[in-house]
Amino acid sequence: MGSIEVTVNGERRRITPTGRTAVDVLRVDLGLTGTKLSCGNGLCGACTVWVDGVPAVTCVMPAEALDGRDVVTVEGLSAEGLHPVQHALLAADGLQCGFCTPGMVMAAAAFHDRWRRDHGTGRPGRQEVVDALAGNLCRCGSGPAIIAAVQDACEGRYDTPGPYPRPRIDGLAKVTGSARYTDDLTFDGLLEGVVLRSTEPHADVLAVRAEAALALPGVRGYADLLGRSRRVRYTGQPIGVLVAVDRATALAALDVVEVVYAPHPAAIGLEAALAPNAPNTHLRRWTPPSNNEARPAPARYHGNARGPQFAFSKRRFTARRLVKAARAVGDPLLVEETFRIPHQVHAAPEPHVAIARWDDDALTVWVSTQSISSLERKLAKRYDTEVTVISHHVGGAYGAKQSITDEVVAAVEGARVAGAPVRVRYDQAEDLSYSGHRPGDRIDLALLASATGELRAVQVTSYADGGASAGQTVAGLVRITYPGAPMDLADYDVVSNAPPGKPFRAPGFPQVLVALEQAVDEVALRLGDDPVDLRRRWSRRPLRHLLYDRVAAHPMWRDRPGFGAERGRHRRGVGVAFGTWYYGYDPAVRVAAALEGGRLSVSTALQDMGQGAYTVLATAVADTFGVAVADVEVRAGDSRLERGPTSSASRTSPSVYPAASAAAVRLHAELLEAAAEVLGGPVEAVPGGVTHAGEMIPWPDLFDRLEDRRVEAGRPKDGHVPATPFPVEGVQIGWGLSDVAHLVEVDVDTRYGTVQPRRVYVALAAGRIYAPDLARSQVEGGVIQGIGLALYEERRLDLRSGLVLSADVGSYRYPAMGDTPEVEVEFIEEGFEHAPGGGAGIAELAITSAPAATVNAVANAVGRRFPELPLRPDRVLEALR
Amino acid sequence: MTVHRPADLASASAADGEYRAGGTDVEERHRLGISTGPVVDLSGIDELRGLVVTDDGGVRIGAMTRLTELETLGGLMADAVRGIVPGLRAVGTVGGELLQRTRCWYFRHPNTLCLKRGGDACPAREGDHLYGVVFDTGPCVWPHPSSLAPALVATGAVAEIYGGPDRLVEDLYGDGSDPSRDHLLGPGEILVAVLVPSVDRWSHVRVEPRSASASPLVEVAAAETGGVLRVAAGGVAPAPRRLMAVEEAVAAGAGAREAAAMASEGAAALTGTAYKVPLLQAAVEEALETLA
């Protein structure tokens, strides 16, 4: 059919639908990229706009349906000043990566306007807001702040133009939809690449016949991605990339590519790989890719089990002997159980996407990544060329977007054969299947206590199910959690013909703590001891004891029901668990601080995936000068800037804040001198400016009179010898451990076995917090992702074909707005005085023990423990039987 | 995608291609690449519109009525669609919701074959059918996805069909024995409207694994009209299922628990779906208890 007419943001537009969806027309034809395409089946809400005043998803709306209708996008909503809901989201920091934010804004603004019309300035209940935002998923877990922000806006607190607090420096760009993510970029002549994937779970690829595909109109090239090894180890493994003028042409061409396989027997998943006569899933000496930060340590294979790593053990033969003896006599204080933890998928709202362009011999890559600088170095080495990596805004990562990922290689190789820029963008099924996951796990645990409540021995064997990847340390983490007793800790990676994992926020910890912290609670129950008091005896670390004190005094804990004591249909449960993370930093970061054109700026090749890194960077400079964070311009997201850290392992803030501070302090000193010269006399520094001749002159008034200058600094040395002698993959492990307490209250509906998280108290002891509002957001996100792992999330794999079945957000169920508890966050800003800046990171800490606490809460409610996650209704009902 | 946009039912009935109402299902399948071919867009046909209260207090709902509009009706219809997220309710239509294709994760996967996509077996039966049926009445083991259908079946609603006889909504689906069909409308047959009688008492229960789940585990609708109670369930069978045994038990004077136990009559759960049987019974019990 021909063209149709639609009003978009108040303007009459003529568009040609040509069988496309509304979101494509808005984003591509009209350039309104504030509206995001994420799930593609109408369930995540990122593409929400108003159609005739009603919030509607556009990813499954035919463009023809726009005929004669009135559309408002986030750009239109923001055109004449911010909507009260946008002010409120900024003030409450109800956003992180920002990719879901425009859709959230549109849904929330419509609710707000309707509410105000019907109720004036009454405060809506939580449930009413939740119902309105039920179809807007926030994977970063900003739900608590979003709900509160919408309630505040409905009360009329943001009716005037402001000003209101804006703690997040890139928040305005995100709530107005002007932040451009990699997925929003477009270039003249940009080609699309689609990945040819193995249909076999285990095979040698004998031949790829792409001639027929290459002969089709619009197809521009095919590049191999397998390299010298022609073996594919999982269904969906990339074999090559096919490049065409658009995605539809590329997909059609993919259908006629013929791949000739020589299949090998496959073992798909943990049980199949561990079966007595399982086929060999690995080649001799093959080191699988890592699902952790560092490369997997050398290890032997026992069948398909790679390992064990037992370096974290301590008097392991003693531990083994004690457990065996206790088992022989049926010691009631020996807790033994086999736990099964599902695979948790990152499911970032912005899919994995990369655009590559070759100019002569230089390579530029625009990519949604959490590791700009290291990706630049790795690509430069791999392709022996000058490389630029650009990533200004990242729509969620959680660990899956670091290092050289498959879509990057596909885009680079595709661009090379096509001689033109190429984009490779995963669709939702690819993203949820092949871009990584927290490995599943089978954990055999034995924990032995004495009658006086001493920890006598721990024995943990972990079989990490990372598919065709390895490197997950799970059992070993017991050592830093309860270090006192003899412990026999063995970590295996079970290599199978399934998609490989990637690091996921606090690799290993959620898994082991679900087992360990349930076992500790069980020991306490058998001893008739208070679970917190028992733990108090097992750790000597002062920070942990501060947390024990906090939890013990918390009303939620004091008023907890007895184990399984609740009766009636709805049962309340309260659970606690404690987690730990390292203090790590990248010692090689460089940050520049500058005065340029009358404005302060700070720069480094840093990325912000929603954790607030840009704000932390600006805060370091703002703190030094005593000016507002908004007065500092941030230059980041580009590898041509000073070397930045990878944003993983909670290293970003402890790396860049001290470096930025150091640069800012030197800049400040130089500017003081320059000010004295300009003012013609001695000056004294005061917060926000200088005093001269008894008069306070604010820095902004001085900046215009001072010459531009720029200083660069690295990260000052720690006040304590680090825990490891040198950095691995850019992470130096410093001295000291950070700690967290999660206290969770749930409501269990015993009729259906469903669990509603109600309230969470989380206390973190990680030293100084640089940007408290943003840190709170990040912590809430970790809590909610942890609740997801405990209650809802599990990758489902077809054990015959190796296909991932939970390949859309309808079947990969991470927490939605209705699963959001109220979260109280407390920071205990102690313990890292030896660290420059005084702070450790918090990203991983926030999730570590959240699943364990959630499981302990459900166990408390129903009076049974849970060896298997997630706590689906069937499992809860089974426990109640 | 080739799109025809007929202006009236006669030309729509004669057009070649899959019918598209709101498009939420068709667009998703085309994006996934599991459906191809031309589409006949029904949005330009006036006869499919309109939401009118009939003389007997019932309501005639045009097939192209958006799900959001059902909220204005309140009652059972509003409750039935509340589990569909707001942004989809604004796009999806009554006709499309009733006649959508299965949400089976094998069917929806771009790289599988199944009985509905040219395969010769149901991969979910031997594979992962965690969210599958408990009434194993056909070769496919995935439940029918409609949330609205159980509610309409409970009210005894009638489907008005162009190009074929009108029939009860419960007769739109058959018993699931033909795996190629998600409904029984033939070529050229178009759902024009549903006629929903007024009900005296009703209830609706939805059991979800997580809030705002795209597919609930079980949903149950009950409605009483002129002393006749109908109970229907979704999420448990290849077609929306009327629970006659429950109705009969209630008619015979059984209490809610006793009657609810009859919900599983005829059930044959799969290895992975046995857990749904107690969920179904509990949901029916609650539906009977909360009938108001």
3D architecture notes:
The complex is a heterodimer of chains A (881) and B (292). With 881 residues, chain A is α+β, with helices and mostly antiparallel strands. Chain A is built from 26 helices and 34 strands. In chain B, the strands form three sheets. Chain B has a five-stranded antiparallel β-sheet with strand order 4-5-8-6-7. In chain B, strands 9-10-11-12 form a four-stranded antiparallel β-sheet, with helices on both faces. A three-stranded parallel β-sheet of chain B has the order 1-3-2, with no helix packed on it. Chain B has a single domain, classed as 2-Layer Sandwich (Uridine Diphospho-n-acetylenolpyruvylglucosamine Reductase, domain 3). In chain B, 60% of the residues are buried. Classes of the chains: A alpha+beta (881), B alpha+beta (292).
Helix content of chain A: 25-40%
Mean residue pLDDT of chain B? 96
Percent helix of chain B: 25-40%
Rough shape of chain B?
A: globular
How many domains would you count in the coordinates of chain B?
1
Low-confidence stretches of chain A: none
Radius of gyration of chain A, Cα only, in angstroms? 27 Å
The largest sheet of chain A has its strands arranged as 8-10-6-19-16-17-18
What average pLDDT do the residues of chain A reach? 97
